[in-house]
Amino acid sequence: MNILNYAVLSLLRSWQKQVSLIVIYALVVGFYASVVFFTSSLKTETSQTLEDLPPLWVQQLQGGRLVPMSVSLQDSISKIRGIKKVFPRYWGYFFDDATGAVLTVMGTDFPNKEIGFLEFKEDYNQNKKEKNNQNGVLVGTGVLETRNLQLGDFLSLNDNNGKKVSYEIVGSFGAKSDLLTKDLIILPIKEAQKIIGLRSDSTHSLCTDIAVEIYNPEEIENIGKKIDARFPSLRVVTLAQLSSTYQTLFSWRGGIFIYGSLLSVLAFLLLMWERASGLSSNEKKELGILKAIGWQINDVLFLKLTEGAILSITATLLGIVLAYVHVFVFNSPILKPFLIGWSVLYPAYDLQPFVSLGDILSIFSLSIVPYLAATLFPAWRGATTEAADAMR
């Protein structure tokens, strides 16, 4: 009989105790893995979303807060050397009294050209898209769900003056990430200005911010410094800065729970250490018999390592499966309210499954290696005990 078979039979002799150990172990690993999967998926979706944003944009600040800025500033900014294109952006937030959701409103007259990252559905009305109907609106699937609407229905909104206006829903869209389009409403520019309160007369038109495209990506920081020096009242934001901010935010929030789960893993390992360090009389007798029939110290250590590997790998795999189901099947009901933040995005969105090899390796290294180390030293103490003393 080889050592692997003996290890399996040894575990089966006390299967009830081993099953309870695996269940507790899997729950601890599952909580840690849930945090890892959730934050990794959120970072990945955010990175995919940010890929389609302009490399640089400028905003008007007043009293430290973002305020609308004049569209005419684009002419002055476009004269800076190295800038390829400058265009104003019209966007803002709209509180929907009917559903209690905070929706994002974006204005553009050419959605099929200027918003290339949108992936229109097949049921989108191509004729109305080409006509650019003034009363046409594109909406996210979340808007359709919360308002109980379909393509061809009319979406009613209150403009900034409280006047109710209606727009025909001419299309809906999907994208790489629901974070981008789930709560989005796209209107023609003038209609969007009415909804979010941007002045749109012929003498002084306002926008939310101005996006800047640059010929050489290596010059983004330099051109940003030029804009900052020439227009002190403007704030320059780069795509790299925004991406770094989101990554730091998700890492900080996820780190809180990772530290908590690490403490849980540590407490569990300490418990296992205490249990393993005090070998029962039956376990001592078993080790004594094995040594008496010719087993060497390395054979006993390999036996205990094999038993520990079977338990830890089984529990880790089970914990990973539980974490995957919790995060990507049930949409992480335990972690999501805490990791997303105090302002929950309406409508709700589902995370796309994303699990990297690095995540799996980190989970395995944290859960298996310390457990094996926690069982090795007590096993060594038992293996070095004389056979006669162990069997007494």
SSE order and pairing:
Blueprint: H1 3-13, H2 15-50, E1 56-62, E2 65-67, E3 69-70, H3 73-78, E4 83-96, E5 101-107, H4 111-114, E6 119-120, H5 126-131, E7 136-140, H6 141-147, E8 154-158, E9 164-174, H7 178-181, E10 184-187, H8 189-196, E11 206-207, E12 209-214, H9 220-230, E13 234-238, H10 239-277, H11 281-292, H12 297-329, H13 336-340, H14 357-367, H15 369-383, H16 387-391
Parallel strand pairs: 5-10, 7-9
Antiparallel strand pairs: 1-2, 1-12, 1-13, 3-11, 4-5, 4-12, 6-9, 7-10, 8-9
GO biological process, one term: lipoprotein localization to outer membrane
Main location: membrane
Membrane topology: Multi-pass membrane protein
Report on this structure:
The protein has 392 residues and is of the alpha+beta class. The chain folds into two domains: 3-48 and 245-391, no CATH class; 69-207, no CATH class. 54% of the residues lie in helices and 19% in strands. The chain is built from 16 helices and 13 strands. It has helices at 3-13, 15-50, 73-78, 111-114, 126-131, 141-147, 178-181, 189-196, 220-230, 239-277, 281-292, 297-329, 336-340, 357-367, 369-383, 387-391; strands spanning 56-62, 65-67, 69-70, 83-96, 101-107, 119-120, 136-140, 154-158, 164-174, 184-187, 206-207, 209-214, 234-238. The strands form two sheets. Strands 1, 2, 4, 5, 6, 7, 8, 9, 10, 12 and 13 form an eleven-stranded mixed beta sheet that branches. A two-stranded antiparallel ribbon has the order 3-11. The radius of gyration is 30 Å and the shape is elongated. Its main location: membrane. One of its GO terms (cellular component) is plasma membrane protein complex. The chain crosses the membrane at residues 20-38, 256-273, 309-330, 351-373. InterPro entries: ABC3_permease_C, Lipoprotein-release_system, MacB_PCD.
